[in-house]
């Protein structure tokens, strides 16, 4: 019941984004963004001077993370390919996750000062990254709604925030959320983007192998969905896969690979890159450890670089060519480029034959990670084979054929090399005769 309530709260969240006034703000089409979702207190402690009542041994207490800590790690986040950072609530609070606000007009002093918060925003914008802040409605009622709206409006007017996410404590607050969003939109000229909950669908599809993906396929085609394998209010994806006796890093890589292949807004919870575990919030909101193996990070970086350079993978059309027993073949395309994405979330090697009807005549598929170039055998068929628990991206391009100039040059080099060998041999033979 608790898990269902938490997921429902996530479903009722919305992202409110300021209308673009500068190049640093979030793009109007959020599918071009990639969001790293964190809690300030649990991420990085760069300024021990603001640590008050900190106890890293008690998961219900503050751990010491602060604005400066996030600022110091922006390059770490950007290097993985993320373009936006969601930092949770930042207002004065008596809870580490910021959900229980005690003063809507002040920043949480444990997180840092106004100046340090502005430094975080400036540093992010210098890197062309966006900052998203949560506006919780926990504790908000019709009696104090006007005061909360006034405080949030003043907050948006004071700081150069790129986006805000309005979150609810329960479904009954939905009308309050609508009033808050409408008021902020009126005073700040903001645009509203709904956030769909996809976590349960992702976990049901990828926590282990050979699971049916029909329900996931419905999520896969939604360009407005926030694609996420877990959130700050759900069980960690690692916990789900560990319960299935699966190897979490492999499971995470398959899920992230699939996530980056879809339309929508890819969003990753902090710590996923190190396979952070946890079933409850107290367990899953661990202090971030930056000294770990980089297997997932390396893979994530490559996948995000690929997605970041392709408009078709970000905002293009999607066709599901095949879906059966954990094996999915997608086509992502626009007028300029076409991709075939193969997701093998099964326990065995799988094969699928792409036809010329799908990609056109005289093409070839160039694998980005696991495969070589695939060409048809003059029958318009392109056989794709992929091992278990892998995701491969194939770029579709015109068949190149043989490079005659290159082959002639290669033959010339070979002939010259053989002539050189002959001359050396002949010269050595003459010297032998002279020495006699």
From TrEMBL:
Protein name: Glycosyl hydrolase family 13 catalytic domain-containing protein
Keywords: Membrane, Signal, Transmembrane, Transmembrane helix
TM stretches of this protein: 406-425
Signal peptide: 1-23
Glycosyl hydrolase family 13 catalytic domain boundaries: 37-307
One GO process term, biological-process aspect: carbohydrate metabolic process
Pfam families, per the entry: Alpha-amylase, Alpha-amylase_C_2
UniProt key word Membrane: yes
GO terms assigned for molecular function: metal ion binding
């Amino acid at each position: 019941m608790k898990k269902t309530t938490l997921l429902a709260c996530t479903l009722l969240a919305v992202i409110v984004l300021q209308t673009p006034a500068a190049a640093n703000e979030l793009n109007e089409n959020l599918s071009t963004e990639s969001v790293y979702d964190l809690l300030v207190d649990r991420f990085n402690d760069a300024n021990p001077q603001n640590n008050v009542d900190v106890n890293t041994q008690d998961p219900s207490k503050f751990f010491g993370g602060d604005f400066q800590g996030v600022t110091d790690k922006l390059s770490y986040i950007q290097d993985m390919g993320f373009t936006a950072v969601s930092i949770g609530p930042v207002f004065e609070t008596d809870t580490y996750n910021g959900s229980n606000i005690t003063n809507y007009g002040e920043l949480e002093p444990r997180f840092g000062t106004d100046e340090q918060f502005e430094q975080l925003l400036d540093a992010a914008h210098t890197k062309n990254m966006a900052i998203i802040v949560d506006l919780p409605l926990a504790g908000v009622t019709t009696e104090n709604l006007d005061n909360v709206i006034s405080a949030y409006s003043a907050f948006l007017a004071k700081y150069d925030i790129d986006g805000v996410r309005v979150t609810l404590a329960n479904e009954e607050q939905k009308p309050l959320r609508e009033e808050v969003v409408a008021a902020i939109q009126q005073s700040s000229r903001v645009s509203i983007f709904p956030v769909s909950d996809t976590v349960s669908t992702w976990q049901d599809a990828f926590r282990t192998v050979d699971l049916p993906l029909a329900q996931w396929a419905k999520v896969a085609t939604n360009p407005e969905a926030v694609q996420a394998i877990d959130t700050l209010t759900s069980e960690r994806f690692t916990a789900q896969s560990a319960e299935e006796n699966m190897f979490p890093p492999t499971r995470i890589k398959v899920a992230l690979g699939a996530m980056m292949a879809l339309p929508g807004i890819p969003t990753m919870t902090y710590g996923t890159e190190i396979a952070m575990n946890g079933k409850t919030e107290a367990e899953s909101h661990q202090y971030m450890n930056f000294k770990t193996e980089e297997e997932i990070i390396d893979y994530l970086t490559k996948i995000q670089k690929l997605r970041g350079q392709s408009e078709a993978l970000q905002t293009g059309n999607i066709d599901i060519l095949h879906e059966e027993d954990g094996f999915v073949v997608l086509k992502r395309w626009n007028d300029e480029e076409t991709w075939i994405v193969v997701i093998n979330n099964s326990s065995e090697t799988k094969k699928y034959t792409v036809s010329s009807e799908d990609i056109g005549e005289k093409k070839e598929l160039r694998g980005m990670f696991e495969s070589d170039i695939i060409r048809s055998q003059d029958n318009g068929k392109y056989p794709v084979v992929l091992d278990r628990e892998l995701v491969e991206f194939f770029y579709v391009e015109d068949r190149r054929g043989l490079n005659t100039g290159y082959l002639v040059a290669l033959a010339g080099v070979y002939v010259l090399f053989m002539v050189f060998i002959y001359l050396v041999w002949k010269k050595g033979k003459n010297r032998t005769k002279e020495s006699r």
